[in-house]
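Human:
Take a look at this sequence-structure pair and walk me through the tokens.
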Amino acid sequence: AKPAAQSPMKLTALQLLLWQSALWLVQEASPPGPGSSLPQSFLLKCLEQMRKVQADGTALQERLVPPTQHPSCPQCATYKLCHPEELVLLGHALGIPQPPLSSCSLNSVPQTGCLRQLHGGLFLYQGLLQALAGVSPELAPALDTLQLDISDFAVNIWQQMEELGVAPAVPPTQGTMPTFTSAFQRRAGGVLVASDLQSFLELAYRALRSFAKP
């Protein structure tokens, strides 16, 4: 009689244990709410810095390829910087890498994954812009300003990753950068890098803006 009487009690205890385990798994798997992973003040500062870098990139693009340039323009015919198809092919030929940003989708969880990719991309573009040094004297001020603002942005992200405890144990190092051996390659490379940077920032901006929404 005793074993029969203990069975319902054991069954109840087992059910309670299973329920608690299931509840714990649900809590662990539940994604945080929008913006809960990253401080709002940090996100707003990032958006401000990103707009500044985008403005710097636009200024560099306008100096590299003036808005009035068109296919019949001698400079366009010489450097072939006006046709997107030519730029894509040239980018592959010059070996200009493009950083991933798959963790910065609008529904990315955790948001710290986006930070790591964003910092990695900014770090890569710092190296690419350094490789463009000497493209032309008149472009040097715009290039220097862009590099400085990207550096400040990358430092801000790195500091936040350190505060959250998600920064890599070893700081990143630059890989092999493209070697631009002629004035044509440096100028064309500048157009490609500036264009790729703008596309990169546009995707990141949309993601960070969605993270910043209350």
